[in-house]
Each structure stands twice: as structure tokens, then as C-alpha cells.
Amino acid sequence: MASFKSGFVAIVGRPNAGKSTLLNALLGEKIAIMSDKPNTTRNNIAGILSQDAAQFVFVDTPGIHKPQQELGRVLNKNAYIAMEDADVVAWIVDGTQFFGSGDNFILERLKTLGKPIILLLNKVDKMSRENLLKRLNYWSGLYDFAEIIPLSALKRENIDEVLHVFKDYLPE
Known about the structure:
Elements: E1 5-12, H1 19-27, E2 45-50, E3 54-60, H2 70-85, E4 88-94, H3 101-111, E5 117-122, H4 129-140, E6 147-150, H5 159-169
Parallel strand pairs: 1-3, 1-4, 4-5, 5-6
Antiparallel strand pairs: 2-3
């Protein structure tokens, strides 16, 4: 009998990287509110996708940022809890933006987890092929990610590949 896999996937990233858009694309329906306004997602939102050989519990988290006040600290804490509880962490980044201090802040936190980190380079539909290759090369030099996947969450490009890779890292 074929094995069945099930586990938690935390979707983390900076505000407006496409976390909620990704969750909606993975589930094939609108569950999370999508907005250009930072901090629209204030609580962790779970979505469950069941397939023949796997069940994914996705946890969409608030955008991680340098907090200026208590609300920011609480939102970050929600994201950290999801990361620590997950079997796999999906770090989604806006591929059109350069690596900055906010990304470094997240990367340093991810390095402490000791679990598979899948980097999702989002918004590739807005990039030239040459730029995409440069960004993939740059990000791959920053950390030994379990996988790096280019995608467009909004246009649902490469979503099947994302699910296939997540499944590989889920426990039986």
C-alpha cells in the first residue's frame, strides 16, 4: 500500500510578498483576504488540502517585519509559532524586490529552525527571464534552501510543482 503523508506547511514572508494569494492558489479557492495593505492578515489562517496520497495543512501567517509597536510584535510572534510548529516552512519572497534588511531578519530566524525551508520566488510573471535567473542565482547563494521554486501565485503558475515539492517534505 502506498504511503500517506500529512503535515503542516507554514507560509511566511514579509508583508505583501503574496502569502495569502499563495494560500488561495494552493487551495483553489479564496480563503484568505488579499490586499495591498500591509498587515491585512493579523492571525494565522489555516487551510487544509486533501489529496489521494497527502493532506496539507497550510498556515498563512502575518507578514514578518521589524515591529514598531505591540501589534507588530504580536503579529511576528504568530508567524514564529507557526514556523516552529510546521513540518515545512515555505518562505515566499517578492522576486521583483531586492534582498533587504527585512529579508535578512527573516533568514536569520529561519536558520535557527533546523527544518526544511522551501524558498518560493513569487511574482515571476513581472520579471524577464534574465532577471529571474539572476535572482534565483542570488538567493541560492544566501542559504542552502531545501528547494527554490519560481512561481506566480496570482496567476497560479507553478502551483502544482509547489505542492509536489511540499509533499516530498511531509512526514508519513
